[in-house]
Design brief:
By secondary structure, this protein is of the alpha/beta class. The protein has two domains: about 240 residues, Rossmann fold; about 170 residues, Rossmann fold (3-Layer(aba) Sandwich), CATH 3.40.50. Helix content is about 40%, strand content about 15%. It contains 17 helices and 15 strands. A seven-stranded mixed beta sheet has the order 1-4-5-15-10-11-14, sandwiched between helices. A four-stranded parallel beta sheet has the order 8-7-6-9, with helices on both faces. Strands 2-3 form a two-stranded antiparallel sheet. It binds pyridoxal-5'-phosphate. The site of pyridoxal-5'-phosphate has 19 residues, from α13.
Length: about 425
């Protein structure tokens, strides 16, 4: 073989601690605020919906947080995940760039989300929680949490955005296989869902509405806690195993990234990939560029405002300082369901404000064009969310060609698209539109 194309680690290379960028941020992160008083929210304000051990992590100033052994044991079912070099894509693009991607699609649910689902299920089990309630868009998070709950013997209830529930049934079926209960949101299970349905019986639902339903369910049901698959500090923290492994794998490849790229919905897979590299950037003054790619249809980082906003539509969650389009923003129905969120993780927003990362927005037709080119050269069909990172990487590789300069590109392939094939079918039939 002319070039090694896969960089594989053994199970003993699974990280032993999560990395907390808050310990190294040049300025402290603004605290969350209580939605009623607008005073800084303390641990007590979160205790109704999260267990204390996760609240402590959410607020932790520690740089490293040890990963419990039972969590590492479960990670070993699919981790360490591969880092691959896309040599065939490089050839197809005729670029001097080297393109690497970290592939999280090998997890049981097919994305990076089990990295935090398993940790959250573990800490809830430890804290005596019996049941977890959550929301899901296209079903990636719901299926990941259903999987994690099945391993720890927890009940799991998922409010799934109605349009996906009807149009993308396979992840709902996976949730059923893993033993979870799934409701189409807005549902008749909650006051808030009933109120939304009364106003608009045909409401297709949104992540913000589903979050409100899951939180209402949580606060009124005993031994139930709420679980969120993105945005929060502890979620970003759990995902940092991605970047830590990637650093070791790039050492195996004998190269250092000039540019790191990830797709952003709530920001967690991007945070997981890039935060460990930002640690090096802050410590050593590395010049690596870091780029978040979002859809033009839901551009919280490139078109939103940095301000305090709610995480849900009903305004029940604490206010977080984040890049936001406003908590009542209803994103148009694009195919990357996991990127249709009005806000951005406070940690990612803060890194953006401090100039540690950049953001770009891409329209979905360009994103699918890139994903199909990737599939036809490298084989893997990317998740529509991950396809944003693919498109970002291809744009960088083209720029390297124009400049006639070698450039080492590393991007996060957050999941596979095997359950999103109807989106590809629509693209190939010319039925996808940019909004
Ligand atoms: C959920 C999801 C995303 C978006 O969520 P982030 O928190 O921004 O990572 C991206 N890719 C895949 C495959 C997803 O399932």
């Amino acid at each position: 073989m002319s070039h090694p194309t896969s960089f594989l680690l053994t199970p003993d290379a699974i990280p032993t601690a999560w990395y907390n960028l808050n310990a190294d941020m040049p300025e402290p992160l603004p605290p969350p605020l209580h939605p009623g008083t607008r005073q800084p929210a303390g641990p007590d304000d979160l205790a109704a919906i999260f267990p204390e051990n996760l609240i402590m992590q959410e607020m932790s100033p520690d740089r490293w947080i040890e990963i419990p052994e039972p969590v590492r044991d479960i990670y070993a079912l699919w981790r360490p995940t591969p880092l691959l070099r896309a040599v065939r894509l490089e050839r197809a693009l005729d670029t001097p760039a080297h393109i690497y991607y970290k592939y999280e699609g090998v997890s049981p649910a097919g994305s990076h989300k089990p990295n935090t689902a398993v940790a959250q299920a573990y800490y809830n089990k430890e804290a005596g929680t019996k049941r977890l309630a959550t929301e899901t868009g296209a079903g990636q998070w719901g299926s990941s949490l259903a999987f994690a709950c099945s391993l720890f013997g927890l009940e799991c209830t998922v409010y799934m955005v109605k349009v996906s529930y009807n149009q993308k049934p396979y992840r709902k079926m996976m949730m059923h296989v893993w033993g979870a209960e799934v409701f189409a949101s807005p549902s008749d299970q909650t006051e808030y869902g009933r109120a939304v349905l009364q106003q608009d019986p045909d409401c297709p639902g949104s992540l913000g509405i589903a979050i409100s339903e899951a939180i209402e369910d949580t606060v009124r049901t005993a031994a139930t806690k709420y679980s969120l698959g993105s945005v929060l500090n502890h979620v970003c923290l759990h995902q940092t195993i991605i970047g830590q492994e990637t650093i070791k794998q790039m050492e195996m490849a004998g190269e250092a990234p000039d540019v790191l790229i990830g797709c952003v919905g709530g920001g967690s897979n991007f945070a997981g990939l890039v935060f460990p590299f930002i640690q090096h950037k802050i410590a050593n003054g590395d010049s690596c560029r870091i780029v978040a790619v979002e859809p033009t249809a839901c551009p919280s980082m490139t078109r939103g405002e940095l301000r305090y906003d709610h995480g849900d539509t009903a305004g029940m969650t604490p206010l977080m300082m984040m890049d936001t389009l406003g908590h009542t923003f209803m994103p148009p129905p694009i195919h990357a369901g996991g990127l249709r969120y009005h806000g951005m993780a406070p940690m990612v927003s803060h890194a953006h404000k401090l100039g540690l990362i950049d953001a770009v927005a891409l329209p979905q037709t360009r994103v699918f064009e890139a994903a199909v080119q990737f599939a036809r050269s490298e084989g893997i069909v990317p998740a529509p969310e991950s396809a944003h990172a693919v498109a970002g990487a291809i744009a960088e590789a083209r720029a390297a060609k124009e400049a006639g300069q070698k450039c080492v590109i590393v991007f996060g392939m957050s999941g596979h698209g095997m359950l999103d094939l109807t989106s590809y079918e629509a693209y190939l039939a010319g039925a996808l539109q940019d909004v």
